[in-house]
Known about the structure:
CATH class of the largest domain in chain A: Alpha Beta
Number of helices of chain B: 11
Oligomer: heterodimer
Radius of gyration of chain B: 39 Å
Order of helices and strands of chain A: EHEHEHEHEHEEEEEHEEEEEH
CATH class of the largest domain in chain B: Alpha Beta
Strand content of chain B: 5-15%
CATH topology of the largest domain in chain B: Heat Shock Protein 90
Number of helices of chain A: 7
Order of helices and strands of chain B: HHHHHHHEHEHEHEEHEE
Strand order of the largest sheet of chain A: 2-1-3-4-5
CATH architecture of the largest domain in chain B: 2-Layer Sandwich
Strand order of the largest sheet of chain B: 2-4-5-7-6
CATH superfamily of the largest domain in chain A: Response regulator
Structural class of chain A: alpha/beta
Number of domains of chain B: 2
Radius of gyration of chain A: 20 Å
Number of strands of chain B: 7
CATH architecture of the largest domain in chain A: 3-Layer(aba) Sandwich
Helix content of chain B: 55-70%
Largest sheet of chain B: 5 strands, mixed
Distance between the termini of chain A: 44 Å
Largest sheet of chain A: 5 strands, parallel
Helix content of chain A: 25-40%
Number of domains of chain A: 2
Number of strands of chain A: 15
Amino acid sequence: MKAMIIDDEPPARRELRRLLTGFPWVEIVGEAGNVDQAAEMVETLTPELLFLDIQMPGGSGFDLLTRLEDVPQVIFTTAYDEHAVRAFKVDALDYLLKPIEPARLAAALSRVRSRQAARTPRPDAILEQIFVREGDRCWFVPLREVRLLSSEGNYIRLSWGKSQPLLGRALAALEQRLDPNRFFRANRRQIINLDFIETVELGVNGRLHAQLRDGPEVEISRRQARLFKTKMSI
Amino acid sequence: MNDVERPITQPKSQLVYWIFQLAGWGLFSVSRFVGAVVVLDLPWIRLTLELLFVGALGLGLSHGLRDYVRRHHWSALPLRKLSWRIVVAAFVLGTPLGIVTQFTGLSALQDPAFLKPYAPALSFQFSLSASIVIEIVNSAVLYIIWLTVYFTAIAVREHRSAQLKQSELARALQLAELRLLKSQLNPHFLFNALNTVRSLIADNPARAQNAVTRLAKTLRYTLTSPQDELVTLSQELDIVADYLELESMRFEDRLRIELHVPDEAAGVQIPVMLLQTLVENAIKHGIAQLPSGGLLRVSATVQNGMLMLEVENPRPPALVRTAQEGVGLQNARDRLRLLFGARASLELDLSHPSVTTARLRIPVNP
């Protein structure tokens, strides 16, 4: 598994590297000391796992994650900011306190491995999860749980469970990376998750109205309605 | 502590007071009503009105008495002084209440001529003045009971709140000590230093040994120095040097250090941990925030009987945070004021766009 170490303190990086020699299946493809450098390296090296420090010069570990288009698995490493990590309402990530206990590292890595195995292999271009931050709160959002993506200027509003977080990207750019078997462009502004459709009703002028589970009713434009019918073979 | 300022009456005890007042005077009026109307068959409309009036008067007088008692802090008096005051007060208030009662229909209860049919054994006759005295004594006894209950309740409550205050005080003290210790220890530094040491054990054992010694010295200095102690600048610089050595092991070439301390400044007395706090701030808000680090400069001069200490660090441009003003700096200012009054000062100069300078002025002869 390709991994990267991101920490601004050289001794901390060396120490982690040394600890990881006990896990030959983890291959360290790169090291970075600040957020800018890390963002660049993650895009080119495409690691599957990040060891990520929280306090770094030029931005925190969270800042890095919001900048990444494709967020790999993450293990936070921190000396004292565990409260910052625990504030996450996500079980899909781990944190290790520095100095790192070898036993805890082993446990975290085995969780990473089992999560990786549970993932269905997909073409690389398709996104599984995105990292969203709103004020002090951060989420890893699995895209299959998002029922609706609405364009708001250069942002995307996600309808996900009870939250409506805002993502700093354009809808058109993200659309390329969405699973075409799951997501469907309903109109100029909205993309719906087909798994969430409850009912579809005919509207005027050949439009369709799709009622989403737990969500709003979305209008499918005339042009897209034809596509929708073919796709759903109705 | 604001517990000391807390008024004696709180909303809850105020409510309890009124419940007791109304219940007490209500019970008094109802028992008289039962005696007069049910047993003696007196005209009940007139009696009800009169009893309401007497009850209200009794209550009003006792409420006034409570005001008086509180204003003169009777609850703080020793028991002997309090008891004769209670008796006097009871007669002072009992007199008007007794007289008023005498001129209501209730007085029939004291009139043997009226009582004769019910109690034939009563064959004597009271004079008017004797009846009034009896009413006054009756009312005074009522007030004695009232005051006894009142002061007992106060005593119980004060005892309880004293106990509570004691435990709150102890808790607050513990919390303050804990906070102080935590802020002095700087856990972020401590755990990162330990991580560095762990790394050095494999990379460079000799440096690791050096780091452990310096860490121990830094910790001992923080843990054993009391807040109000003065040390010489050179003593403080010793510990700052240890700290900086540890931080440069952590940041490696990102941290560059310059020290300018002339001999005449080295002996000046400064509050312990003050320079250390400034240096920690400079690293935390300056060097650690910059990808390529920067230069930390500490310089001292003595001019016109004042020691001027400057700690300078590069400031990240993007940082929106208004200043490096934290708890540490506020604490440092408080200590300076306590030790030197207006003669010492500490200011943070943010006028330069990319440099922060902390300036400390301390009189050489305090």
